[in-house]
Write the structure tokens for this entry.
Amino acid sequence: MKSTVILAIGIIFISILSTKTLAATGTLQFNPQSLSITKGQTLTSTIVVSSDVNINKVLAKINYPNTILKPQSIDTSNSFVTLWYQNSIGTGQGQLILEGGVSSNGTSGTQLVFAKINFETIGTGPATVAFDNTSTISQASDGTNILSEFTSAIYTVTQITPSATPTLLPSNTPTPTLNMSPTTTSRPTISITGLPKGGTTDTTFAWGIISFAILGLGLIILKNI
């Protein structure tokens, strides 16, 4: 009977420890975890923390390919952190170190915003952004590291596709057409019935001389009869 009681107490004790161990877990991840982006654009990656117990400090060491990504700035405006120990874009050698926490009894929750990292895309190809295995999430009660899982992100940076240059076609210029048909010019009709207004013409003068000559000839003929 005594051994049975001891065994039951042992089982209960182990269950309590197991329950406590299972509850004290924390995770780190990036949001979004995958993305396609064009070279030259700004990529924003958000670090989020989840924990079932109160935590008071997070140390996030982030590795990234510095031939593709270049840190521009770190945005902590929506962070749950109230006290920062390390918070800078680093030396550009491929690692960022962010460390911050909260005072008093700490905080807990799901998808808590830790910080946003703005990367400039300077190269092309797949870029893996990953947490270093020395990252930690500290439990508020005793400072124990409860980080149990961290997830990497893969961002694909593509080259800018040049736009097609439009081909300028020559405009249709009308070709001038030469008209080879002869042009008919109407000759003016000379009237001999009278003088035109404003003077005489050579034709009228000639008819006058002829008339005068005929008249003279007629007079000579009549005289000789």
Notes: The CA atoms of residues 87 and 205 lie 121 Å apart. The helical segments are 2-23, 202-224. Residues 202-224 form the longest helix (23 residues).
